[in-house]
Design goal:
Layout (H helix, E strand, L loop, with lengths): L7 E10 L2 E11 L4 E5 L6 H8 L6 E6 L2 E3 L10 E4 L11 H8 L3 H14 L15 H13 L5 E5 L7 H16 L3 E5 L3 H7 L2 E6 L2 E7 H7 L2 E7 L2 H10 L4 E4 L1 E6 L5 H10 L4 E6 L4 H10 L7
Parallel strand pairs: 3-8, 3-9, 6-7, 7-8
Antiparallel strand pairs: 1-2, 1-4, 4-5, 9-10, 11-13, 11-14, 12-13
The protein binds adenosine-5'-triphosphate.
Keywords: ATP-binding, Nucleotide-binding, Transport
Protein name: ABC superfamily ATP binding cassette transporter, ABC protein
GO molecular function: ATP binding; ATP hydrolysis activity
């Protein structure tokens, strides 16, 4: 089978601001049509990685869009990339529609693609106003629309949900999923992890300028810890019974019981029921993406030496 090149390849990316190194040998690939979440704490290096890919910052290392290398002085392949980095740079005296006309490349498809984006992002009621009057969310929507123009193969979005209301968040999610199903690759940074959990196929976790984890969302969530919180009519006895059956139990708000692959809620209920214990409350406490990422970053080997 013919090998399809990755949509984006980043190899040995290092970045210095003066003498201060902010990226340390960053390596990763983005597969075509995947949505990749780039996550990490404030200052971890997400924006710097994105700016380096787009040749907006000088860096050391190799970056390729598909099979084509991109460098600070050689960036033809960036024609196939759409991006929104930090806040969009807009011309105050131009309307939103004039911005879209300015950035569109293919005149033949300009009118339909601009109209479709305006419609999909619900921008009709402000698109013919000058950008100087735009709110944060309106600017952000226009910046997103510009990133989606010209059918890019790769779209890079840095904190795209900034300033977006719930409807706009929903519209953007629908647009990203539609474009990704059509083959567009996305690299998206966001602190809104619940939203990334709904969108991303793959995750790259950055900490102190290094990649500390590259994984699929499914893999990460499958490895996450499953626990139940329960209250019984005799919690002390319940602890004794569960520990004797090799469950890890801690006392919190009720009993917190870790569940491994070989254990289950049904088995817990049966064990306690066999001893005539009454379960008064029971609920699942599965880790979400936030908890899983915090654990990755907290691991000592995740810290850059
Ligand atoms: N122009 C600059 N000059 C000097 N240092 C910079 C510059 N821009 C970024 N940095 C430093 O590089 C590091 C990475 O910053 P970056 O903006 O890439 O982080 P980030 O992960 O995007 O953070 P956030 O989530 O807060 O946006 C930080 O330590 C930051 O202080």
């Amino acid at each position: 089978m013919e090998n399809t090149p990755a949509a984006l390849t980043v190899q040995h990316l290092n970045k210095f601001y003066g003498h201060h190194q902010t990226l340390f040998d960053v390596n990763f690939q983005c597969q075509p049509g995947h949505i990749i979440g780039l996550v990490g704490a404030n200052g971890a290096g997400k924006t710097t990685i994105m700016r380096s890919i787009l040749s907006l910052a000088r860096h050391q290392g190799q970056i390729s869009i598909g099979p084509d290398p991109v460098a600070f002085n050689h960036h033809a392949a960036l024609n196939r990339v759409g991006a929104l980095i930090e806040s969009p740079g807009l011309y105050p005296y131009l309307t939103g529609r004039e911005h879209l006309k300015l950035f569109v490349k293919d005149d033949a498809q300009a009118t339909t693609s601009i109209a479709t984006l305006i419609n999909q992002l619900h921008m009709e009621n402000f698109i013919d106003e000058r950008a100087q009057k735009y709110s944060l969310g309106m600017k952000q929507k226009l910046g997103i629309a510009i990133a989606f123009l010209n059918q890019p193969q790769l779209i890079i979005l840095d904190e795209p949900l900034n300033g977006l209301d719930p409807q706009a968040t929903h519209d953007l999610r629908a647009l990203i999923l539609k474009q990704s199903a059509a083959g567009t690759t996305f690299l998206i940074s966001s602190h809104i992890l619940g939203e990334l959990q709904r969108l991303a196929d793959d995750l790259i976790v950055i900490d102190h300028g290094s990649v500390v984890k590259e994984t699929t969302m499914a893999e990460l969530l499958a490895q996450s810890q499953h626990r139940v919180q329960l209250t019984t009519n005799d919690d002390d006895l319940a602890v004794t019974i569960l520990q004797a059956a090799n469950y890890h139990v801690s006392m919190g708000d009720g009993l917190l019981v870790d569940i491994t692959d070989q254990q289950s809620v049904e088995k817990i209920m049966q064990l306690l029921g066999d001893q005539q214990l009454l379960i008064q409350d029971i609920r699942h406490l599965d880790d979400d993406l936030e908890a899983s990422i915090l654990k990755i970053i907290a691991q000592p080997e995740a810290q850059h030496a």
